[in-house]
Amino acid sequence: MAGISLLLDLAKRNPGFSASARSIHAHTLLSAAAAASAAAASFAAGRPLSSRFLFGDGGFSVAYCDAGAAAIWDESRTPPTSLYKDSLEFSTKEYNLEVKPIFSAFLPKNLAMTSLRSFLLFYLPLLEPKNLSEEEDEPLEPVQEAPVDLVTPFHNSIKQIIRETAVVTTRRVLERVAVHYVSRRTAWKLLKDASRSAKRKAARGMPTIFYIYSVGKTTIKAQVLGVAASWVVQAIIDVYRSFIKKSSDEIEEIELKEKFKQFRKKMHATTIKCGASLVCASIGAGIGALIHPSTGQWIGCTVGDFAGPIAAVILIEKFQLEL
């Protein structure tokens, strides 16, 4: 009680103490600790020097700061309000998946194009004229020409039609597997239309090298499912020919180990052809896109897809590589 009465007596004698306390309590931003420090400072300042050796400083450490000073903001560094308005206009990218019907290969238009392409592939070689050599320009005896076989090309055309429709249907199945089991962004890249993508990239004004690289990369992603479907169908055909189908030309039965060896060679050759088809298709699409973004990309991709396996076979035969 004596201590409290002493503090009250000092507060009455020192008017600066009461004024400081009122200003501290009026300032709402100062904390209780800051108010206590200011009161201690006023109390110590109002105590005469002659009595400090007796009472001491009260055990308070006083520090002065500019906590109550007004803050000065640099308006030039304040972000403009238009930045926030513009940021609200942007939205996340949407990946629209365009999944085609699973039996799209059997639609009248697609089936007619596949049939026409298959028949032309096997019947056009029959229309090539036979060139006589210099010694046979004037034959002494008339040679009877063998009748043209039209049945075998027909059978081959039917097999080609079945194979192409199986590849397209397998691709549609793989597309649905990709939609359900991979991320939406990855599935969108696998199902993307490479021709329209090349047209959009051409409108951005990219450098030539970067444009070719970008179109080629997009074409590889868009062709992966088609090449994988072709590989699966060819693998099924090789399994049938190697282990199920019985050839009448073989006199002796081939051992199972030898069948596996032949099947392995066929699968290696199929894998190399599919890889070459994918790489050459991307290169052809990148080069063709320089001529025309949409049509040129499609033509270059088709030519590369057809020329890739042929180039792979030629290189294997030239360097006599063992599969």
Description:
The chain is mainly α. Helices cover 67% and strands 0% of the residues. It has 12 helices and no strands. The chain has helices at 2-13, 15-26, 32-46, 49-55, 81-89, 108-123, 151-181, 184-190, 194-202, 208-244, 256-291, 295-319. The protein is elongated and about 140 Å long. The N and C termini lie far apart (105 Å).
Topology record:
Blueprint: H1 2-13, H2 15-26, H3 32-46, H4 49-55, H5 81-89, H6 108-123, H7 151-181, H8 184-190, H9 194-202, H10 208-244, H11 256-291, H12 295-319
Summarize this entry quickly.
Helix content is 67%, strand content 0%.
List the defining traits of the structure above.
mainly alpha; 12 helices; 67% helix; 323 residues
Q: What percentage of amino acids are in beta strands?
A: under 5%
Shape: elongated
Q: Please provide the count of β strands.
A: 0
Order of helices and strands: HHHHHHHHHHHH
Proportion in helices: 55-70%
Terminal-residue CA separation: 105 Å
Runs with pLDDT <50, length 5+? Answer: 21-36, 49-56, 59-69
Main sheet attributes: strand count, strand direction, barrel closure: none
Which value, in Å, is the CA radius of gyration? 44 Å
> Helices and strands: which structural class?
mainly alpha
Task: Count the DSSP helices.
Answer: 12
Q: Round the mean pLDDT to the nearest integer and report it.
A: 77
